[in-house]
UniProtKB/TrEMBL annotation, chains A, B, C, D:
Keywords: Transferase. Residues 1-66 form the DAHP synthase ferredoxin-like domain. The keyword Transferase applies. GO terms for molecular function: aldehyde-lyase activity; transferase activity. Residues 82-326 form the DAHP synthetase I/KDSA domain. The keyword Transferase applies. Pfam families: DAHP_snth_FXD, DAHP_synth_1. The lineage of its organism: Bacteria, Pseudomonadati, Thermodesulfobacteriota, Desulfobacteria, Desulfobacterales. GO terms for biological process: aromatic amino acid family biosynthetic process. This is Phospho-2-dehydro-3-deoxyheptonate aldolase. InterPro entries: Aldolase_TIM, Class-I_DAHP_synthase, DAHP1/KDSA, DAHP_snth_FXD, DAHP_syn_2. It comes from Desulfococcus multivorans DSM 2059.
């Protein structure tokens, strides 16, 4: 951290800040400049709290310099993390496609969709058994019954399954069924849930919060790694901005930034980003082109009868087209970006 | 809901939408316009899912018309909800001041601060025993020990206490000690926690999420009321925007809007909104002037030694000044706005 | 427009709104619902001002239904607009690449860069002669001297040139030299400039404002078309959000939305969106994959000596790689999306 | 500026950055830390361009330290700027109220409103003769005829007048009539207009852009001061965020920040911030309570017949109430904040 002093700071004020830094066990390094003094805070470990300095006489501002995360950082682990579930590996240089309905509604519905998305090229089946819903009056998911149906889908199709966990109470249950456990957008900073996920032996699929910076998102992942679980997949799904023509704003630049900062794989969810069916395929192409390791896409064979998020679910034949398009784009990236 | 058809929609496409509306059990009402047709969806109860119509041939857009919440709405309950804890009533026409440290650090710290804020005019003591922290390496709070200290503060000073609950596992524990249970910003849409809060017999202090619309915030409150707990206090604490001179952007207009839409009391937290000590008093004045029912303010007698959020904590003498200023402003509102 | 009445609105209040609608020359169409009445406003032309109804007793809200733009709408002109300059056509089914330095610094600099970008595959040369700069102390561009250099580049390389106009006073001058006239982000709602552009006989390259909705952006284009100039190219270059890892947030979903709503071609500027060199190539791939008609990219042969925006300028060899990658992606879109 | 090196930066890379700094005429100051090296850039004048360093091998990030503005800074001029027009002074310790219609529609309308707002306590009459409108089909203002009517209002009432200028072509005209010249939100970074304003002998009323940071806003003011005109009044009028219950989000914390950073007076426009009549009075109270030097408020005697922005215009009797309330709040600030 750098502490920037007011131009008018007195030598006594500077000395006072220096001694506070020393009291906290850090090493102060004053940097006299042309107009004002700044004081570097050299430290042993962990971030320094700006709170210690803001408001002290003569201090104008504090400037953080290093990133707060450690275990998720590529500076700690230079090589990519590859997450393996069954025959599928995420982040290993192949594109991973996760697809399925927003919510599990029945065994027939789940199997129908699963077989269609598998035939199109999906590797992992997604589906919601416990659904976080803005309204208490909306369909909240089938619960364990939904999990059993998903297990049946796995049995029939061979695809690993990913599904959301909403709380600690149902974590053991979800963990018992799922191959990958999803922590949703609204729970990205549910720290109790993150700590529980850190003790899980299953990979965690961590969606970015609606208004989370990349630092905050990686810190949420840090909770999981710090707890002992290194199998974390990040998922960008759009952030909230003033833009109103899509449900959220897909932040594609998050992909190169995350890939540079962290060794964890990153997936994009174009369905929740756009929120409308006609944006899903274009956003999927952009997601793969920008360098994501995979996609999570909502597909429903009868979207106008879906019990949630039907408006953003693709028809199975659209998903076939999507797979064809993104596979072609992904092959270009594999062949063509070596010179970048 | 209103379904807006494309200008080029055919009579068959319009007829198809009409029949889908009927199949869902709603009443369609086509409205032929100059340029295009719109179709009203009249309904019995609950919101209609846009998903049912977006993507159907000939449909251009859907437009929600009514608000999704019921129990929190002033249309359901015209008179103000007054939340009572001990001798203190929130929303009864008097200004409620909640103050205390971000985190409970020791009995001495808590009692020192509590006596100072009480002397200045605070009615309720705030303090964190379980702390949601962005970093897993940051101080996470004293846990039950902190709750015991807060109970001791109540015993000594007579002030009711408000403290945050982070998860279901510790809900019973927090409920046993607290007079008011806080659900924090990052948990505003932790629906499991909201449902548990709905079964509590203690008032709930529900902070607005960082990127939550008022509709989403009121829907989170709706979860609690729907569960049977009508004692909910809303707290605006700033939202996340592009603005970088304050930690968050205090959305003062939320106060008149919430007061018009809902019967629940609304408090402002200027400390987390500004994130810097020198903004807290001006924001507090704005908060009371705009019509909030009260304030929640962080105060610490040694903010440069605080274990969290010291940079935004007021010195006790600043809190004295704050109380004096906001009381004077509140009296004007009581006397002077009858003509509005 | 739809006027939503309060649940408690009286028949007299409803009747009053109906008569106001009639006084304004519109046709009212009341829609009695289960809980409340809404009143449709049918109209002959142009948008209805919400101001006429908000605040009238019994009115809860107004809901706009139709889009405010006309000439730029695909409902007015279903077929794509193709903008032609010299041998280059924009929006004709081929990918258009515009490249060059942020600012023209010298003839040698401009020619050096122009020949490199042309060799790599660029079709149009970009460069700034009049530069909008946040600081009055920053380099403001070479002015007419810069325009002359650009004309020289055109003469030598055969590439058409695009450059920014900042005001009415210099419009004639810029128009005399440029093949395409750029209106920058900060001037998107400089209505005097838009009106002047509407009288120009040169194509206009209209960048989206930092916080502009698509409606506002298309309305800015509407000013130009309404003035008589139908040759408008839209350019998405990132919007301002809370996100801080890129200079702006590239809104890729703007492309499918604009292409659906309007017949005008849309280009993406990945350089200003990312603001950092290492984001430009990934964002370019995303831009082409999502369906943009072309790219505008900053390239400099000595970016660390550039007089503005060097940090986001590609090295010429990076631009070679970019062209190769986006061409491959664009070919996939031409071949592969017929089934979408 | 501080240049943060990668942990893995080699001594050669560090040496290279040091020599680049020297080549540019700055003084490098390396700061070896526990984990990585940072290099301070000490300079004589003006900001250092990050572009010079981002992308150089071994460089992780650059961190700006000092503010880019000079003349508007309180570090340059510690005492408040007081802007005087006729008998009215802005920023002199009294509250300044500017009021009037959005657009001048007729002499009768203007005089009617002017006399009502003057009687209520307004000091300056506002009104639009040239109107920036999102739609080319909307009423664009009366032009010079409107200016003549405003001059007539001044003659009759004695109130100075403030009105917007939209471009260079009409600057002389507006300057000839107006006492204070307004530069609107959409023109905050119209640099040609700012330069012209810098040559004006009339005070400039500079509205904040929809997505402008305070740094950018103060830099826009810097253009005017740098041009020789020191009479600048800043106006906060809400910024664009995801929030949809008000037209814009009033950023009240801008007031204490601007007052700390700059010596220029700051006014709040609650009418454009809220965009709805029922938010104007609460926001006005907040504006004065937070410390603004004054308000600019839209008032219309027949808002439902107004030609623009009627929905946010107060009735004259509401403005009477507003004046009474904010005067009382302002008196408290004058008396009561000495201890802050």
């Amino acid at each position: 951290m750098l502490i920037v002093m007011e131009k008018t700071a007195t030598p006594e004020q500077i000395e006072n800040v220096v001694s506070i830094i020393e009291q906290k066990g850090y090493t102060p390094r004053p940097i006299p400049g042309g107009e004002r003094v700044a004081i570097g805070v050299l430290r042993n470990k962990g971030p320094v709290d700006a709170a210690l300095f803001l408001g002290i006489p003569g201090v104008k501002d504090t400037v953080p310099i290093t990133r707060p995360y450690k275990l998720v950082s590529r500076e700690t682990q230079p090589e990519d993390t590859i997450v393996t579930v069954g025959d599928v590996a995420i982040g290993n240089g192949r594109l991973t496609l996760m697809a399925g309905p927003c919510a599990i509604e029945s065994e027939l519905q789940a199997l129908t969709i699963a077989e269609k998305v598998k035939a199109a090229g999906a590797h992992i089946f997604r589906g919601g058994a416990f659904k976080p819903r803005t309204s208490p009056y909306a369909f909240q998911g089938m619960g364990e019954e939904g999990l059993k149906i998903m297990a049946r889908v796995r049995e029939v199709t061979g695809m690993p399954i990913v599904t959301e966990v909403m709380d600690d109470q149902t974590f053991d249950l979800v963990e018992a069924y799922a191959d990958i456990i999803q922590i949703g957008t609204r729970n990205m900073q549910n720290f109790s849930l993150l700590k529980r996920a850190g003790r899980s032996r299953k990979p965690i699929f961590l969606k970015r919060g609606l208004a989370a910076t990349i630092d905050e998102w990686l810190m949420a992942a840090e909770y999981i790694l710090e707890g002992g679980n290194t199998q974390v997949i990040l998922c960008e799904r759009g952030v909230r901005t003033f833009v109103n023509h899509s449900r959220n704003t897909l932040d594609v630049s998050a992909v190169p930034v995350v890939r540079k900062e962290s060794h964890l794989p990153i997936i994009i969810d174009p369905s929740h980003a756009g929120g409308r069916r006609d944006q899903v395929i274009p956003l999927s192409r952009a997601a793969v082109a920008v360098g994501a390791h995979g996609l999570m896409v909502e597909v429903h064979h009868e979207p106008d009868k879906a019990m949630s998020d039907g408006a953003q679910s693709l028809y199975p034949e659209q998903f076939v087209s999507l797979c064809r398009q993104v596979d072609a784009i992904f092959r270009i990236l594999q062949n063509g970006t070596d010179a970048i």
